[in-house]
Design the sequence.
């Protein structure tokens, strides 16, 4: 390992050489100020994996200062990461690398069901003069130990015999509960984690996402286990709610999307708000009636695709479920009016929901549903396995105790 001080002195030397040859630059960068102005780029939160598929995934992370960034990827073959130069992937905003604090790097052209190692890097700017930008302070992880930290992620695989996943919802920023519910995600060999909405009560800043659950997710599982997130009604609220899709980008760039894992095809839907868009609580900003209408049209197309029709198991993820007398709420009424007629005729095996802060298992027909609906509470997680025999569902509390167990036969 190269001592930090040596790295720093070497970088100083490089920049000293640059300064000698650049009169205009040197007046901005006297050596005495270089160390004082040294922007120390650090990972503030992450990384986490979004929009995972069979041949691609997106790495997302936040840095403490604006940086340019990249990801290096290597096969999981036991070789030293430095045995050769590894492919580098960059974020591109219309052909230019962005200087930003929230980074999204898409990795493509991978093999399905295959493990890859990846490492994330960022460089902060010491001087920004447009095209004469100078980068400084390259860091991997949160220190300069380049050789040790790497993450491993496995692409999804439609041919594997089972899909094993876990789901949490309605934690409303209760980080300690979130930690308890997700501490064994990696140990339990989950293929992915579902966030089924209302992870915060409202989003007033990115820091709330960090403090409410993503810092913990980063420490516990998110560098290794993909996340599939849908919004609950509460993620529609708050001055920073517009940033939600930047934190949790999807394969469609919309808050509704699909993915396939093992024998199961998943449809992730956005429930919208629970009250009418004109409600005073939304300050005239809500357009979720329109969002649900758009989704219904999209959903009609999805259920005609070969990918959907050929899947042995079909699962819908939707924060607000239909439930007895749920139609007394506008949002639920619209879900029942727009989504349920399509889903009821599509051969759906299961809907996964939250919102009610209490566990229910709705058999077919309980609320106009042609398939069972599992509603997870705000204090438990769902552990699920879908395979050729059916879907095994376990509701587990924060102490790891199994409270309920259901089997939906194939
Ligand atoms: Fe909710």
Sequence:
């Amino acid at each position: 390992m190269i001592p930090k001080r040596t790295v720093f002195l070497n970088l100083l030397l490089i920049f000293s050489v640059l300064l000698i040859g650049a009169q205009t630059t040197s007046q901005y960068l006297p050596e005495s100020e270089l160390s004082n102005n040294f922007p120390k780029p650090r990972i503030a939160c992450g990384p986490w994996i979004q929009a995972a598929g069979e041949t691609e995934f997106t790495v997302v992370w936040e840095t403490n200062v604006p940086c340019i960034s990249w990801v290096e990827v290597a096969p999981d073959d036991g070789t030293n990461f430095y045995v050769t130069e590894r492919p580098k992937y960059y974020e591109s905003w219309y052909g230019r690398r962005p200087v930003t604090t929230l980074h999204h790097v898409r990795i493509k052209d991978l093999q399905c069901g295959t493990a890859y190692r990846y490492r994330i890097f960022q460089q902060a700017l010491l001087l920004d003069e447009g095209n004469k930008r100078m980068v400084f302070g390259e860091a991997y992880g949160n220190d300069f130990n380049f050789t040790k930290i790497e993450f491993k992620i496995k692409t999804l695989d439609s041919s594997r015999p089972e899909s094993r996943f876990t789901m949490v919802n309605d934690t409303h920023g209760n980080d300690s509960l979130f930690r308890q519910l997700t501490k064994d995600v990696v140990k339990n060999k989950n293929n992915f984690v579902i966030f089924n909405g209302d992870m915060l009560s409202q989003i007033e800043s990115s820091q709330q996402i960090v403090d409410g659950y993503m810092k913990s997710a980063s420490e516990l599982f998110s560098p290794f286990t993909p996340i599939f997130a849908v919004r609950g009604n509460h993620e529609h609220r708050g001055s920073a709610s517009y940033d939600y899709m930047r934190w949790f980008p999807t394969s469609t760039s919309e808050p509704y999307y699909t993915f396939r894992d093992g024998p199961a095809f998943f449809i992730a839907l956005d429930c919208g708000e629970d009250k009418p868009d004109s409600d005073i609580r939304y300050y005239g900003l809500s357009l979720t009636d329109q969002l649900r209408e758009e989704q219904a049209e999209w959903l009609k197309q999805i259920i005609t695709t070969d990918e959907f029709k050929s899947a042995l198991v079909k699962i819908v993820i939707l924060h607000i479920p239909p439930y007895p007398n749920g139609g007394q709420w506008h949002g639920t009424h619209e879900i029942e009016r727009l989504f349920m007629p399509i889903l009821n005729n599509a051969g759906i095996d299961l809907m996964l929901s939250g919102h009610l802060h209490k566990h229910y298992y709705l058999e077919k027909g309980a609320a106009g549903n042609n398939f069972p609906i599992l509603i997870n509470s705000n204090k438990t997680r769902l552990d699920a396995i879908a395979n050729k025999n059916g879907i095994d569902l376990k509701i587990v509390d924060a102490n790891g105790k199994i409270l309920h167990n259901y089997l939906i036969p194939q």
